[in-house]
Amino acid sequence: MPLELGQPIPDFSATATGDTTITLSELRGQQVVIYFYPKASTPGCTTEGGDFRDRKAAFDAANTVVIGVSRDGLRAQENFKAKQDFNFELISDKDETVCQLFDVIKLKKMYGKEHLGIERSTFLIDQDGKLAQEWRGVKVPGHVDEVLSAAQALNSQ
């Protein structure tokens, strides 16, 4: 069942960097940005993660937690986070549980071959755990600023 704006996001727990388990329900009272990226340590994903890293203070001021998600293993996520000095956690979703929940696994084409992969997508969840906004098929340039503006506007309501 696809997620709909204004509807509660089903609770989930997932293994993340920093030897943590992220449980969505434990983040109630804060806004949450969950962004999905295709693969750790690739150019677009590095740029997008860096944009979130560089705006972390502004997200914090808007009472918003940022979490990245990909299908990479935990070691790859830890290395990506350390190398890029990310100041937020990354979920390792090898079994695609979180990806399926947010319906981000799509048929993609690369070099003429089709494969299933993550469609770059971002979701803003309000303080009550409801979907406030979503961006699918994201283009990296300017995207994080758009998400930050939405988080700031939602926080001031």
From TrEMBL:
Molecular function terms, GO-annotated: thioredoxin-dependent peroxiredoxin activity
Classification via Pfam families: AhpC-TSA
Function: Thiol-specific peroxidase that catalyzes the reduction of hydrogen peroxide and organic hydroperoxides to water and alcohols, respectively. Plays a role in cell protection against oxidative stress by detoxifying peroxides and as sensor of hydrogen peroxide-mediated signaling events.
Keywords: Antioxidant, Disulfide bond, Oxidoreductase, Peroxidase, Redox-active center
Protein name per its UniProtKB record: thioredoxin-dependent peroxiredoxin
High-level lineage: Bacteria, Pseudomonadati, Pseudomonadota, Gammaproteobacteria, Oceanospirillales
Superkingdom of the organism of origin: Bacteria
SUPFAM superfamilies xrefs: Thioredoxin-like
Record note on quaternary structure: Monomer.
Family: Belongs to the peroxiredoxin family. BCP/PrxQ subfamily.
Known EC number: 1.11.1.24
Catalytic activity: a hydroperoxide + [thioredoxin]-dithiol = an alcohol + [thioredoxin]-disulfide + H2O
All copies of domain Thioredoxin, residue ranges: 3-156
Species of origin: Vreelandella lionensis
